[in-house]
Design goal:
heterodimer; A: about 75% helix; elongated; B: alpha/beta; four-stranded antiparallel sheet; 9 helices; globular
């Protein structure tokens, strides 16, 4: 029931159009990139999926994170702008339930966005690399992997948005974290596990290496930690269910 | 029988005491006027009743239930409107109330009922962000009245309304205990409003309860203490002034 209510609250906020249009804009990148300089890609001795992801994923991941930041800001701006959340606090509904339903909503938007991007990647592969065996399976696996990598960003960003009444503050924090991630993602230290740096990882055709599995474990652990932090925060700040 | 009872209820914020050891007794089926100057602790007390803020000390019961154990049940039975109307600006008045209805598990007809009761029915399809201040206030009231809860907590419900609106809302609140057998705890700066509405009053100053009792009791008390007893406003002002003087304030 709470999920349906959260879905209803997004009406006229531009939440889903933002994800849909953002996904289309991001998806056009691999198409334009490959169309503009096909010779740079079609002669590479790698599977089609790897070539496309190597060439485009950094940009796609950055746009995806940006859209998650915007999505989280929209979801909580709707709550704070006219005090809707205050009314929710006076009703017999769990604050944590509201938060996690919003996370699910954001996950749904991200999933849709990744799916659209994957479809465009498949289109690029079929168009420029007609002989690409196992492409669909590779792209599908990467979509699922990317969605899991996005999980800590979704929960952390929602947590930030839920704590800042002013949307511009949460937007600013999100963008700062995104830029920080770009600086630390290629370091050899533990900083590569920085939540906002994880979505820059992708799954190549070689599948799950030890390194990719470690990233996956980090993403899941961070998501659980942020989720638990939210629950504790609700518990200690006010009454909760 | 009292629907709300507090026992030495206290709320402190670091070195500031917002509410200090108050013992309220809000009788069932009556309108209880909660009076006090700005910062007296009225809203803080109401927020404690709604579980929005935790008491520092003391206890209270609502329908003989307490927080946090019975939070869901208390909130299900309590309609509230605190400080300013809270709503979703992107949704219409009807959609806003429908969200509340679904959370409270009420029938669909309750939305129409609340909209009609507050005179918003013809504007139900307009986004709430486009409502005037008075209409937003009515929407907040409609949210509190949804499902006709047995307990209503209203903080300054007539703020932002024009004189006709104030009269209309006052008449509505006045009719609630009789029509729907509900208890109303209402705070207002408009003392004349409270005088016309309330059966019992509680007067708060600097977090301390100065008086609690029925309107005739207040008149008797005013005469006994030498305060002007002609109208509530004069009694209230004299009472507050004396309390401030006792605290070392300037007359």
């Amino acid at each position: 029931m709470t999920f349906a209510l959260e879905l209803k609250k997004t009406k006229r906020t531009g939440f889903f159009p933002a994800f849909f249009l953002g996904a289309l804009a991001a998806s056009s990148l691999p198409v334009i990139n490959t169309a503009a300089r096909p010779d740079s890609f079609i002669h590479q001795a790698l599977p089609a999926g790897d070539i496309l992801l190597n060439a485009n994923w950094l940009m796609l991941a950055m746009l995806n994170i940006f859209l998650v930041i915007i999505g989280a800001c929209i979801l909580y701006h709707t709550e704070f702008s006219n005090g809707g959340i205050e009314k929710m606090h006076m009703l017999p509904i769990s604050r944590n339930q509201i938060f996690f339903c919003k996370a699910l909503l954001l996950l749904l938007g991200t999933g849709t966005m990744l799916l659209i991007e994957s479809l465009f990647l498949v289109f690029c592969a079929c168009h420029w690399f007609p002989e690409s065996p196992g492409l669909l399976s590779a792209v599908f696996q990467n979509t699922c992997y990317s969605l899991l990598m996005m999980l800590p960003v979704i929960i952390l960003m929602l947590l930030i948005a839920s704590l800042c009444r002013n949307m511009w503050v949460s937007l600013g924090v999100g963008i700062t974290l995104l830029f920080t991630a770009q600086m630390v993602m290629s370091s050899d230290t533990i900083l590569t596990y920085f939540p906002f740096a994880l979505p820059f990882q992708f799954l190549s055709s070689s599948g799950y290496s030890r390194e990719k599995t470690a990233f996956l474990a980090a993403a899941l652990t961070e998501s659980v930690l942020f989720g638990v932090f939210k629950i504790l925060l609700t518990k200690f700040r006010r009454y909760t269910l | 029988m009292n629907i709300i009872e507090t026992h030495n209820l206290t709320k402190r914020y670091k070195d500031f005491t917002a509410v200090s050891h108050i013992n309220l007794h809000i009788p069932k089926g009556q309108i209880y006027g909660f009076l006090g100057p700005n910062g007296a602790g009225k809203s803080t007390t109401m927020k404690m009743f709604l579980g929005l803020t935790k008491p520092t000390a003391g206890t209270f019961t609502i329908h003989q239930m307490s927080y946090p154990k019975d939070r869901r049940e208390i909130l299900r039975k309590t309609g509230a409107f605190i400080e300013s109307p809270s709503f979703y600006g992107n949704l219409t008045g009807e959609e806003n109330l429908d969200i509340l209805r679904r959370i409270l598990g009420l029938p669909k007809s309750s939305v129409k009922d609340a909209l009609t009761l507050t005179g918003l029915y013809e504007f139900r399809r307009r986004p709430a962000s486009q409502y005037s201040l008075g209409m937003k206030q009515r929407l907040g009231l409609a949210g509190a009245l949804l499902g006709r809860p047995p307990m209503l907590i209203l903080d300054e419900p007539t703020n932002g309304l024009d004189p006709a609106g104030i009269h209309e809302i006052r008449t509505l609140i006045r009719s609630l205990p009789e029509k729907y057998h509900c208890t109303v705890l209402v705070s207002s700066h408009l003392l004349s409003e409270i005088q016309l509405m309330a059966d019992t009053v509680g007067i708060l100053n600097h977090g301390k309860l100065l008086f609690e009792g029925t309107m005739p009791h207040l008149t008797d008390y005013a005469v006994k203490m030498g305060y002007p007893a002609d109208n509530l406003e004069d009694t209230f002002l004299a009472m507050i002034e004396e309390d401030n003087l006792k605290r070392g304030g300037i007359k």
